C-alpha cells in the first residue's frame, strides 16, 4: 500500500490531533504516504486533500480540536455521493482511510469499505458512547474540564449555601456524568440509563440541608433532557429548591467541555489507537474499528460493533456515586 488518507468527522474531541499525528508518523515509518482530508467526508468530494510531510504534524499532539476540521455531511448517506468519493480517492491514489469520529462516521467508513476502500474507524468523541472500547479519545480531557469547573462551582455554592445542578455532555450516555460525579464528590448524579429515583434524591438533599450542609452538587447528564426524564436543568433546580431548602442554581457547562489541550491519557490512547489503525491498513485489513479494552488495543468488525455491541456505562461506578456521598 502506497498512500492512505486520514479525516476527522462528526463532533470534534481533544486528542483527535494526537491520533492524526500517530497515523501520519507511523504510516511514514512504514514508507506509506499520508493525505490529510479536510472537513470530514465532505472534504473528499470537495477535494480538500493534501499530502502530509513529517513536519506538518509537528506540535499538534498537544492541541485541542482537530487541525483537519470536522463537518457533518449528511449527503454521504447517498450511495451516488459515496461512489463519487471512491472515484476521487482513486484519482488521488488513496487506497485506504483512517476515519476518526463517532458511530455515524463509522457507518460511513463501513460503507466505503464495501466499495473497496479499506477504512479503519477510531473512536473520537468526548461522550464515551462507542461500542468496542472502554474509553473514547477525548473523554478523559472533557472529564478533567468538568471536574475543574465543578470544583469552582462548589466553592461559590458553599459560600452562599446553595445547591447547583450542573448539566454535562455525553449525548445519550451517562459516562461523563458518572465519572464527574465520583471525582467531584457530587451529592446526586442523573444519567439517562437509570431511573431517576427523584423522590429519594430530593429527600436526601433535604436531609443534607437540615443537617447543616452548605452545598450540594447535582450532576445532570444531557441525555436525561434529550430523552425527557428531566425537562431542563432549571426545572430540576427549581424542584430541588422547593423540596430541600437549598437556594439552587443551574449551570450548563456547554462547549467548554469539547475544547482544551488533551490530557496525557488521551494523548497516549490516541497514539496507541492511531498506530494500530495503520498496522491494520498495512496488513490489507479494512472495515474494522479500533478501541482499548482492559488496557489492550483491540479491533472489531465495524458492522458487529454498530449492530451487536451496545455501549453500556459502568453501572457499578454509578452505584458508587451514591455509596460514598
Ligand atoms: P459524534 O458522535 O461526535 O456526533 P458521529 O460520527 O456520530 O460523531 P454524525 O454526525 O452522526 O457524527 O456522523 C458524521 C458524519 O458521518 C456524517 O455527517 C456523515 O458524513 C457520515 N455518516 C453518518 N451516518 C452515515 C450513514 N448512515 N451513511 C454514510 N455516512 C454517514
Number of strands: 11
**Alpha-carbon distance between the termini?**
55 Å
Shape descriptor reads elongated
Strand fraction equals 15-25%
Structural class, from secondary structure content? Answer: alpha/beta
Low-pLDDT segments: none
Strand order in space, largest sheet: 3-2-1-4-5-10-11
Give the ligands present: adenosine-5'-triphosphate
- Taking all Cα atoms into account, the compactness measure Rg is 22 Å
How many individual helices?
A: 12
**What composes the largest sheet?**
7 strands, mixed
| Average pLDDT taken over every residue | 96
Q: What is the ordering of alpha helices and beta strands?
A: EHEHEHEHEHEHEHEHHEHEEHH
- Helix fraction bin: 40-55%
GO biological process, one term: canonical glycolysis
Domain Phosphofructokinase: 3-281
GO molecular function, one term: monosaccharide binding
Family: Belongs to the phosphofructokinase type A (PFKA) family. ATP-dependent PFK group I subfamily. Prokaryotic clade 'B1' sub-subfamily.
Amino acid at each position: 500500500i502506497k498512500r492512505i488518507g486520514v479525516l476527522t468527522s462528526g463532533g470534534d474531541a481533544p486528542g483527535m490531533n494526537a491520533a492524526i499525528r500517530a497515523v501520519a508518523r507511523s504510516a511514514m515509518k512504514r514508507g506509506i504516504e499520508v493525505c490529510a482530508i479536510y472537513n470530514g467526508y465532505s472534504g473528499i468530494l470537495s477535494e480538500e486533500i493534501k499530502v502530509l510531510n513529517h513536519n506538518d504534524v509537528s506540535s499538534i499532539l498537544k492541541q485541542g480540536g482537530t487541525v483537519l476540521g470536522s463537518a457533518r455531511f449528511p449527503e454521504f448517506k447517498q450511495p451516488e455521493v459515496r461512489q463519487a468519493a471512491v472515484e476521487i480517492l482513486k484519482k488521488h491514489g488513496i487506497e485506504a482511510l483512517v476515519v476518526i469520529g463517532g458511530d455515524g462516521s463509522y457507518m460511513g467508513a463501513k460503507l466505503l469499505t464495501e466499495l473497496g476502500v479499506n477504512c479503519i474507524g477510531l473512536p473520537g468523541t468526548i461522550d464515551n458512547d462507542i461500542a468496542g472500547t472502554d474509553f473514547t479519545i477525548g473523554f478523559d480531557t472533557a472529564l478533567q474540564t468538568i471536574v475543574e469547573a465543578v470544583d469552582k462551582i462548589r466553592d461559590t455554592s458553599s459560600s452562599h449555601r446553595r445547591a447547583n445542578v450542573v448539566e454535562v455532555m455525553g449525548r445519550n450516555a451517562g459516562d461523563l456524568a458518572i465519572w464527574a460525579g465520583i471525582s467531584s464528590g457530587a451529592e446526586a448524579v442523573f444519567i439517562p440509563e437509570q431511573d431517576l429515583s427523584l423522590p429519594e434524591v430530593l429527600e436526601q438533599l433535604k436531609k443534607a440541608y437540615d443537617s447543616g450542609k452548605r452545598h450540594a452538587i447535582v450532576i445532570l447528564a444531557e441525555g436525561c433532557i434529550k430523552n425527557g426524564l428531566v425537562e431542563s436543568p432549571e426545572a430540576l433546580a427549581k424542584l430541588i429548591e422547593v423540596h430541600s431548602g437549598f437556594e439552587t442554581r443551574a449551570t450548563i457547562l456547554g462547549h467548554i467541555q469539547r475544547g482544551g489541550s488533551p490530557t496525557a491519557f488521551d494523548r497516549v490512547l490516541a497514539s496507541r489507537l492511531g498506530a494500530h489503525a495503520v498496522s491494520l491498513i498495512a496488513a490489507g485489513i479494512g472495515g474494522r474499528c479500533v478501541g482499548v479494552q482492559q488496557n489492550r488495543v483491540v479491533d472489531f468488525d465495524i458492522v458487529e460493533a454498530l449492530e451487536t455491541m451496545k455501549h453500556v456505562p459502568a453501572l457499578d461506578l454509578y452505584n458508587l456515586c451514591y455509596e460514598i456521598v
